[in-house]
Amino acid sequence: MKTLPLFIDGHFTQSQADTFIDVTNPADNSVIARVPCATQSEMQAAVDSAQRAFESWRETPVSERARLMLRYQHLLKTHHDEIAEILSLETGKTFEDAKGDVWRGIEVVEHAANIASLMMGETVENVARSIDCYSLTQPLGVCAGITPFNFPAMIPLWMFPLAIACGNTFILKPSEQDPMTPTRLVELFVEAGAPEGVLQVIHGGKEQVDFLLDHQAVKALSFVGSVPVGQYIYRRGTENLKRVQAFAGAKNHMVVMPDANKEQVISNIVGASVGAAGQRCMAISVVVLVGETQAWAEDIQQALGEVTPGLWNDNQAAYGPLISPKAKERVLELIKAGKEEGARCLLDGSAFTVKGYEQGNWVGPTLFADVTTDMRIYNEEIFGPVLCLMNVDSLDEAIEVVNANPYGNGTSIFTASGAAARKYQHKISVGQVGINVPIPVPLPFFSFTGWKGSFYGDQHAYGKQAVRFYTETKTVTARWFEGDIPAGPNMTIHLK
């Protein structure tokens, strides 16, 4: 059985750990690898290496750091499909979905190649007589990232390329559920010419996370995951006086106005709700039907009923299995709760299986109508292929429902009315808004801007905000005296 290595001080090395975690194929729960829980000495070695490397890496010209990212994005594109196949095997994602995961990460690396302009400071001449003031953008030191299972390519690539391009060194703790994809990303980073010690990889669970949260050498930490863990990460990290950005859960609403294009709306609902088996923090899990659109429930039921999960290499499969038996058990428990609380179950995927892969973590598309805000299936993030339909009479009522929700990751409105769209985008208390776009994840020139209980911190992922998160601003006030300028025939000019 393959045991994933650690990556410390520029070398892949087998851990001396005595505790290992199985990596399974979600389609049948067969064990395909195992991952070690790094020891204290191994984690300390990673920190020591990152600290040493920082002293030289921070002095590396920004143009050289940018060229490293250019080489890296080229290698990622060259090996795009290979990475996607590894990703599909350990996550269960369809091949097309896996390729999208990889590509969205590549876009962030491309953005990191523009690091020189992103780190420019500001200058004001003559803030006082003969005094100039200017700012410098400088790296923090050792940074760390803790990434989730659902995007094992994209989310690590949200973190370490930008942090390293800014002049920091980085320690990555990828999800123990699908570590093979991040390992391949690191191999290509080494091939791109990354200096020894600039990137480290440790594996494990809570003990390894706590090490990073507590170690005083780690200056900033990025996290993506569930709400309880995100809150824990933020509290413990900030208690240790670190910068922390913690991206947590969501309950994303799509509001459908009566003037929306019905065919387009239903097509978008299907992909946005059950794509990736609903295991994404930007999935649409609630559709708010306004006025006459409440009659569309049966059409939505019919469209979702035509969706079939399957294996990663099945071209007819709409999505794959859930990541683990535990994840499936939780989704099934919430489906049961929805029925018991009085929601109308129009589609029930609880008993779905794939022939020959009955031991996999399969859940078919599931649809509830007449959902209310006091139900568990509304209040909890299901993280599965389950869609809730709610009914309201007006746009104002829809806005009220969405704003009352404790999460604020993403939302969308489908309408032909510019006035309705503008009112919605202005009034809604959600960080990422789509207008006739179901999943409004911004490209890397912007930032991933979840609000409320979906994010804990100040500066968000990628874009200019990530550069500010991974750097510190130094302001210099300088005065030079004209009387000190050398002059006369005895002045010597030295040229190098």
TrEMBL record:
Pfam families: Aldedh
Gene Ontology biological process: L-valine catabolic process; thymine catabolic process
A GO molecular-function descriptor: methylmalonate-semialdehyde dehydrogenase (acylating, NAD) activity
Coiled coil: none
Start and end residues of each Aldehyde dehydrogenase domain: 13-476
Top enzyme class: oxidoreductase
EC numbers on record: 1.2.1.27
Keywords noted in UniProt: NAD, Oxidoreductase
KW NAD (keyword) present: yes
Family of the protein in this entry: Belongs to the aldehyde dehydrogenase family.
Protein name (database record): methylmalonate-semialdehyde dehydrogenase (CoA acylating)
UniProt source species: Gallaecimonas pentaromativorans
Taxon lineage: Bacteria, Pseudomonadati, Pseudomonadota, Gammaproteobacteria, Enterobacterales
